[in-house]
Design goal:
219 residues; alpha/beta; six-stranded parallel β-sheet; 10 helices; 6 strands; globular
Length: 219
């Protein structure tokens, strides 16, 4: 039996909110658009960029959303090139968790709103890339909660929805899992509160990293 655990990245594997908030703030400032509060920015983590801008500025038009999304990309690239990015640390216990699941026979994947480049940078920085058999990013898929990323991960891994779990910190992850017909497992250390994950369809919510393996399979 092939068991597949698919992780979200931002807010689940790594705490990347500082860089995301700064890039949004700089992009909005340059575009002369009112800068949203950080609580609002944290809520859009996980969405693809255009969809994130739609959520932050719902009254703006499509061209403005795309301009803000490109501005965010430009600011993030400039921050990386200048060495101004803060570390995106793994949440405590994640490295050990990933290694344990892999050694227990789980195939591992990632489904993230990050770009290919951004995800590759994070996995390389934390020496995690070798654990993952499938990587799905915003470059190649519709935004969450569309199930495309999960469906592609299952196909690449040779898995089955019945033995696949999606692990994430946002309601977008939980709805995406439901849309794909896989187990939805929320985590309580990210950017949406546990009660929101449950309302969005989570079958279980792990409040601590050590508790996560217990929730991956239905009991």
């Amino acid at each position: 039996m092939t068991r597949l655990a698919i992780f979200d990245c931002d807010g689940t594997l790594v705490d990347s909110q500082a860089n995301i908030c700064r890039a949004v703030e700089d992009a909005f400032t340059e575009a002369r658009v009112a800068v949203p509060p950080r609580d609002a920015i944290r809520r859009i983590v996980g969405l693809s960029l255009v969809e994130a801008m739609q959520a932050l500025v719902p009254d703006a038009g499509d061209a403005d959303h795309r301009t803000l999304a490109q501005g965010y990309k430009d600011k993030f690239v400039a921050m990386r090139a200048s060495g101004a990015l803060d570390d995106e640390p793994l949440f405590n216990g994640i490295a050990e968790l990933v290694a344990t699941l892999a050694s227990d026979g789980w195939l591992l994947g990632v489904a993230t709103g990050k770009s290919n480049r951004g995800l590759a940078h994070v996995l390389a920085a934390h020496n995690l890339a070798h654990h993952f058999v499938t990587l799905q990013t915003a470059d190649r898929h519709p935004s969450k909660p569309h199930p495309s990323m999960i469906e592609a991960a299952i196909a690449e891994a040779g898995a089955d929805p019945a033995t696949t779990a999606m692990i994430g910190d946002t309601s977008y992850d939980m709805i995406m899992a439901t849309n794909a017909g896989v187990r939805a497992v929320g985590v309580g250390w990210g950017y949406h509160p546990p009660e929101e994950l449950t309302a969005a369809g989570a079958h279980a919510v792990a409040l601590a990293v050590a508790d996560l393996p217990h929730h991956l399979e239905a009991r």
